[in-house]
Design goal:
Radius of gyration: 32 Å
Distance between the termini: 81 Å
Number of strands: 24
Shape: globular
Strand order of the largest sheet: 3-2-1-4-5-6
Strand content: 15-25%
Structural class: alpha/beta
Oligomer: single chain
Length: about 850
């Protein structure tokens, strides 16, 4: 073997995390030491060692680590190990991805140095978060692998530990502590996971570490085995139920009692164990209630099954009354919301599971009805309830699927399997109901001699934008293209291209005016004979919907109705789009009822596609404005880059669909790339991979950066399509507060029609900058994070914004008059009052524009 790199070199070499491997010759089957971890245990464990103690104790600490690691299953896709030390300053010994064999890990443990110095435990914990529990360092947290830190301390801490400890908890990292000699109990208990007694241990001196090593090893093995069941632990019934938001609402009233409440927790543990939990699949929330509500965790709070199971085990008992009605209403208003992690807007099934042992002290019907009217599926698990009428009122129908009533708490556990099966089958059914239905779509363009160049360009852009909204592929939407003058001409058959990019290239580079007389009837007959056949790739015999989109610029010289009727009889839906001098009566004669359009601009493309295939088109110019991070928060830079990559991958990036720009700023804004720089997501992702951290300047000027967006980014010369009615969205991500004024620049940016989202942590929120910059209302556009690890919340907000609630274009104040004229044509009389803010906070220019608006 080649010589091993140093720990520092290994860290520099990391581009992607590698999986740690099992040592050569290490047993993979057969009997195992009772103290060894199970072979199917999975985890990332990082040890943090206080090396400021007497050098004569180094042997005891090394032996302790050697014993613990030697008994865990390092290798394969099992357990990976990292090591860091601290005194005055923390330092990495090796990362989770540095060593791939257990033997290498053990050899390093036997020789790592001990350095005298201070006792900065808080700094060391933050160091672990920034340098070890990162994907680039080998962490597999994003794959649902349990994350564990073990701190060995022998001295009182000299700094504050609360903040990094809280970040550990929010990130779902389990924190164990071993105190030796002078270690302070209060210090260690402050940082630990709960219950504290499970995660902390004290030994009087270093010689006692040896006897404790086996106990800690067994505790780690038990935790990993219990906390992170692999994929095959998902209930077979739930393998296809991969998408749901599930909230458990648990009655903890006095009538249950602590012993039975433990049985309720066992039941919850079994149900959750069978679900495929992650932030992108099944999300879980939990709340308790009696007279009051006790939220345990929200839908977007814990993406790891291991953390959820841990919270279920540690759920405290709160005796009291039984107000089920108010509890159900609380879940509807507070849990099943976008802010709390609900993905209802994306069509994800919403489920509430109520566990109760008694009749409610308040009215339940109204609250239950509201939930069901919102499309929420409500399961009810009743225990020894004689009057089931109330449960029937709450549960969804049919009751035999959604209502379970057990005789007592002792057999509640037996119901978990049947409930899990019923739940997952119902979720799977809802998912299948909402699956995208694909189609074969052929565009027939009138390129006869009387079609103007302007009309042809409109057709070209129209077709391009529609194709850009579709998921094109062999088993998805298939696209055909033909044009006609005196006769039909095939550009692209259904089976010619299999990707959106290929189709777009053809439209922009090979689709040209054909010329000749306008014979639309003959062209429709050509379409029938050429495209809607199996040889051309049509899936008409597979019952895949067939569409013909006929775009014509004038009245045909031949008869069109008979040929159009032939297409409709074959099951083809004919959509007619008229431009230039098109004849409305002819369009109506050719087209399927409700699929006839006269179009003189680009604004109705989204409406057309929504009418034809139920699609909500995503058209947007999206710009991210990101504050450069301080050196102390350098790790947040990578979180932001990962977030950008995830967001870009989820959008249809194309000049005719979604465009993305990126600006960084501190003292001065820096344009990374403009809206029209990249035409596809691959190029953006390639650019993002090359980004490197740049330290921010002394002053942060967010106001100046907002002005830069308005004057230099959201402009037509840099790719903005505001004049075409495409929505303009800005996302401002801040670490701290601005040192210049933000109110005026934000107001001017809003007035140009840009919707602004602001993202920041609690520090930024307290400065009020987020609220000043964001669009109104702030509850919708201000996103507060506990840490930048939660940036995934922002992605969902952005995508919901990009799926427009209305199909009309957004306009600025200066364009308001035309919007009013278009939107109010059916209103003959009205009394309209204007209430104008004339306070000192209104700038003179703003007040003048208000007056102009009123006069219009």
């Amino acid at each position: 073997m080649q010589g091993k790199p140093s720990a520092a070199e290994a860290g520099m070499m990391l581009h992607r995390p590698e999986v740690c491997m099992r040592s050569p010759g290490e047993a993979v089957s057969g009997s195992r030491d009772p103290g060894m971890c199970r072979e199917d245990s999975v985890g990332d464990i990082v040890f943090l060692v206080d090396t400021s103690n007497n050098p004569q104790n180094t042997h005891s600490v090394r032996s302790f680590l050697y014993t613990v690691v030697n008994g865990v299953n390092v290798g394969g896709e099992a357990i990976c190990v990292g090591l860091a030390r601290y005194s005055g300053q923390p330092q990495s010994e090796f990362l989770l991805s540095t060593y791939h064999w257990k033997g290498e890990v053990l050899r390093h443990i036997q020789r790592f140095p001990f350095m005298p110095g201070g006792h900065k435990m808080g700094l060391a914990l933050q160091f672990l978060l920034d340098h070890h529990f990162q994907e680039t360092a080998g962490s597999r947290a994003s794959q649902g692998v349990p994350q564990v830190a073990v701190v060995i301390s022998s001295s009182p801490a000299e700094d504050h530990m609360q903040e990094p400890a809280d970040t550990f908890r929010r990130a779902g990292i389990l924190l164990y502590a071993v105190g030796v000699g002078d270690a302070v109990s209060a210090d260690l208990k402050e940082i630990l996971s709960s219950p504290v007694e499970k995660f902390v241990a004290f030994v009087p001196n270093f010689s006692g570490l040896g006897s404790f090593a086996l106990k800690l090893r067994q505790e780690l093995c038990d935790t990993l085995a219990k906390a992170a069941p692999p994929v095959d632990h998902v209930s077979p019934a739930c393998r296809e139920a991969v998408l749901a938001d599930i909230v458990f609402l648990v009655d903890s009233s006095t009538s249950i009692g602590p012993q039975n409440f433990q049985k309720v927790k066992n039941f919850l543990h079994s149900v959750n164990l069978g679900l495929d939990i992650s932030s992108d699949q099944v999300r879980v929330g939990l709340a308790q209630y009696n007279d009051n509500i006790y939220p345990a965790f929200w839908l977007n709070q814990h993406p790891l099954k291991s953390v959820i199971l841990e919270h279920v085990w540690n759920l405290p008992y709160h005796p009291g009354g039984t107000n089920t009605g108010s509890a159900l209403e609380f879940i509807r208003i507070n849990y099943l919301t976008e802010v709390a992690g609900s993905r209802a807007k994306d069509g994800v099934p919403q489920v509430v599971i109520l566990v109760t042992d008694g009749e409610s002290n308040d009215e339940v019907q109204e609250a239950a009805d509201r939930l069901k009217q919102d499309g929420v599926v409500v399961y009810v698990v009743g225990v020894n309830i004689q009057n089931v009428q109330e449960l029937q009122t709450i549960a969804s129908e049919p009751l035999e699927k959604f209502l379970f009533n057990t005789e007592n708490f002792n057999i509640l556990q037996d119901f978990s399997g049947s409930i899990l099966q019923t739940l997952c089958l119902a979720v799977e059914g809802k998912i299948k109901d909402s699956v995208q239905h694909y189609a074969d779509v052929v565009f027939l363009a009138d390129t006869s001699q009387n079609t103007s160049w302007t009309s042809f360009q409109w057709m070209q852009t129209f077709i391009s934008r529609v194709v850009g909204m579709l998921d094109v592929g062999r088993d998805k939407h298939q696209i055909g293209l033909a044009q006609y003058g005196g006769q039909g001409h095939t550009e692209v058959l259904f089976n010619t291209y299999q990707t959106q990019d290929e189709m777009m290239t053809h439209i922009h580079e090979h689709f040209v005016l054909w010329g000749g007389s306008r014979r639309t009837g003959q062209a429709l007959q050509y379409l029938y004979q050429t495209f809607f056949q199996e040889a051309a790739g049509s899936r008409v015999l597979q019952d895949i919907p067939q569409y013909a989109v006929v775009i014509t610029s004038g009245k045909s010289e031949d008869e069109v109705h008979e040929a159009a009727e032939t297409l409709r009889e074959k099951g083809v839906k004919v959509m007619t789009v008229g431009v230039q001098d098109s004849d409305k009566r002819e369009l109506q004669g050719m087209g399927t009822p409700s699929l006839v359009y006269e179009m003189q601009g680009q604004d109705r493309v989204r409406q057309v596609m929504q009418d034809v295939m139920g699609l909500t088109a995503i058209l947007a110019d999206l710009v991210f404005l990101i504050e450069e991070f301080s050196r102390a928060q350098q790790s947040n830079f990578q979180h932001v880059v990962n977030f950008l990559k995830t967001t870009v991958s989820s959008l249809s990036i194309h000049p005719d669909v979604v465009q993305v720009g990126l600006v960084f700023y501190s003292e001065e804004p820096r344009l990374e790339f403009s809206l029209d720089t990249f035409r596809n997501p691959a190029k953006i992702l390639e650019h993002l991979d090359k980004l490197t951290y740049r330290r921010r300047g002394e002053r942060t000027k967010t106001g100046a950066a907002l002005d830069f967006l308005r004057n230099e980014v959201f402009i037509q010369e840099k790719g903005s399509r505001f004049q075409q009615g495409v929505q303009q969205v800005g996302v401002v991500i801040m670490e701290g507060f601005s040192q210049d004024n933000v109110s005026r620049p934000a107001s001017l940016l809003h007035r140009t029609g840009v919707t602004v989202y602001t993202v920041g942590t609690q520090l930024t929120l307290e400065s009020m900058d987020l609220e000043k910059i964001a669009s109104y209302p702030p509850w919708k556009h201000v996103i507060s994070l506990e840490s930048f690890l939660q940036l995934s919340v922002v992605g969902g907000k952005i995508k919901n914004q990009l799926c427009p609630e209305i199909t009309g274009k957004r306009v600025s104040v200066s364009g308001m008059s035309s919007a009013l004229q278009e939107g109010c044509v059916h209103i003959e009389k009205a009394d309209l009052y204007f209430l104008i803010d004339g306070s000192d906070s209104i700038h003179q220019d703003d007040f003048l524009e208000m007056k102009v608006l009123c006069m219009r």
